[in-house]
Amino acid sequence: MGTKCWNDSFMARYSAFNPYRLIQRECGFPKPVGSDDAVARSLYCGMKPIASWDCDQYNALPTGGVFNLEFSPEGSLLVAACEKKSIQIFDPLTHQRIYSVNGAHLDCVNCVKFLDGRMFATCSDDTTIALWDVRHLKKKIRSLLGHSNWVKNIEFSVKDKLLVTSGLDGSIYTWDINSYTEFNLVYQRVFHASGLMRCRLSPDAKQMVMCTTGGLLVIIHDLNLSMLAQDLHGFKPNLYRLMQMSRQLIPIAAMYDHLFDVKRTENRVEFVSDFPDGNDAEVVSALQIHPQGWSALSRNISHDDRSEWSCIHDIQPHAPTSDKSVRDSSPPPPPPPPATRRPVPRRTPRRRTRPYRSPRPMASVTPVPTGDRSRERREREEERVTEREPDPEAGPSSGEAAQPPRLGLGLSSIQNDVWEASITIKQHRLLQEMYSRGQVGRNFNMQRILGVNTGITPPAALRPRPLSLYPRPARAEAARLLPSPQPALSNDAIYYRTLPSTSGQTPSSARERDSVSEGEDETRHYRIHQNKDRLLYHIEETNEGKGFIKELCYSADGRLVCSPFGRGMRLLALNDSCSELSHCVQDQTSPAQMVEIGQSLGIHQDLVVSSKFSPRHHLLVTGCLDGKIVWYEPHSGEALY
Fold first, then answer.
1. DSSP E strands: which ranges in 394-523?
2. Is the pLDDT of residue 468 over 80?
3. Contact criterion met (CB below 8 Å) for 216 and 240
4. How far apart are CA 145 and CA 463, in angstroms?
C-alpha cells in the first residue's frame, strides 16, 4: 500500500500540469527515473473532446462516413477519406476545414497516405489510386490503374521510394512514382494472397506485415521489394497454414519451407497465429505498426462474430539461436536419423521414362452433421485454398518481371495436393467436433482415420507390400509409387522423410532426377515450420457495428493505443504508468491485458470507425459513420465540448 501511495504522489508531482516539474527543470535538476511516464500519463489521462466538425453544422455537402484520417508528417494538415467520394482537408490546430475535394474518386475513399509534406495518395473502391498535391487540389496529379478490386491500403517505402498498395483482390503492388510513362507509372505485383485484408510497412521499411481473413499475420523480415515477387512466387500462406494445422504433409506447400529459414538474409517469412484464450480469430480487419517498428497492433473478429479483440504482437526478428515455445505442437523428440539404404549390386543404370499417371480419384468422405456457421467457415477456408494465384505482372513500361525457374509440377499434381489439403483439414475439424461432443472415445485414433478417409495414408488392407516381396525388376517402380510419410517433431518444425508423392512429381531440390536406379528408393526430406508465440497484450472490445472495420492507432511515442469503442473511443496503455513497450516486456512471461486509462463515450451520433494521433502534438481525432470529426486534447479541467 505504501508503494502505491508513493507512486501516486510521484506521478502527481511530475505531472505535466504541476509547476513543481517546471521549477525543477529551470533549476537544472536532472529528471528522475519515471518522470517521463508521469508526464505522459497526465497528458493522456487528461484527453478530452474540445471541438468537432460535421457537414450539417457548416451547411456542407454530405460526406458520409469518415473511413480514414491522416496527418501530414509535420502535423500541419489533416486529411479525411470519406464515404461519399470526397476528401476533406483541415487545419488540425484551429479545427477548421481548409479545402474540400468532391468527386475525388468514383466510389468511396478508403485510405490516405502522405508521401512527404506536399504530396499524398488516396485509394478507393473504384480500384484506383490517386496522387495529389496540397498546393493544387483542383486536379489530381495522376490516377494509378492496376488493381481489380477495392483498394484498401496505401504504404510508402522510404527506403525504396516506392508506393505500396493492397486491396481485396489479394494483390500487393509497388509503384515507382518517379518513373512516369505515357499511360501510367512503372508498377509490379510483388505478392498475392487469398483473403488479404491489410498490408503495413515498418517505419524503416525493413519489415512488411500482412493480415488475412483466416486469422493469420504474415511477417516478411529483411524486406527487399525488388526481389519479393521472385522470392515468394507461388507461395500460398493459406495453404501452408492448413498444412501446419493438419500436421499432414502437403508437398506443394512444404516445398516453400526455405522461406521460413532463420538464416535467410532477405524476405524471410514468419507466421503469427497465437491469440488470447477465448479469441478464435478469423478476420483480422485492422492493422497498425508501432512508431519504432517494435510491434503490430491488430483488431480481429472471432469466427462466431460474437466478439472483437485488439492484440499487440511482437514483430522484431529473433536471433537464430533464440527458441521460444512452440504453440502448435507438443514437446517434440529429436529429428530421426537419415535412412540407411540397402546395398544393391552395381549395375549400369538404365534411363527410364516415367509413365504418365492420371490423378487418382477422390476418396469418398462420409459427411458429419455440424452447425451451419462452422460448415460455412470451413467452406470459405477451402475456397481460399483452392483459389488459384495469378502470375506476377508488371506495369506497361517495366517489362516482364524476372521469373524464377518453373518447377516440374503438372496441373493435375497441384490440384491433387490442394484437394488433399482441403479434405485433410476438413476431416480433422469434423473429428475434433465429434470428440468434443463425446461421439468418439479417448482411444479413438484420429490421425489414422484421418489418413484413411482422405486417401493420403492407405488402410492396412490396401497397404502395399514391402519392397523385398516385389520381384527385383519391379522394385524401382514400386518404390516410386509407394507413399510413406514419417513425421518427427523438433523445436520449431515437423520433419518428414517421404517417398515421392502419389499425387505427382514434387521436386525436392532444384535438380530433378531423370532416372531411378533399380532397387534404389528415392528419399526426400521436408519440414513443416511451426509458429512461435508472439502475443504480448490483448483486450476484448465491444462487438457493436458488425461488418465495419474499426481503425485503431498508436500515439506518436507508442505508449498509448486509441481504440474505437461503439460511439466513442477508449485509450489503452500497457500498464498504469503509461510506460513504453521496451520497459513493460522485460519481466513479462505471458501475454497481459491492456489497461484502460481513459474513455470518451457518446460523443458521436454513430459508430466510430477511424482514429488518429498527431505526429507532433498531443492531439487525437476520431471519425464516425455520420461524417462527424471530433478533436481531443489534454485538459486539466472539465471537458470544453
1. 487-489, 493-498
2. no
3. no
4. 55
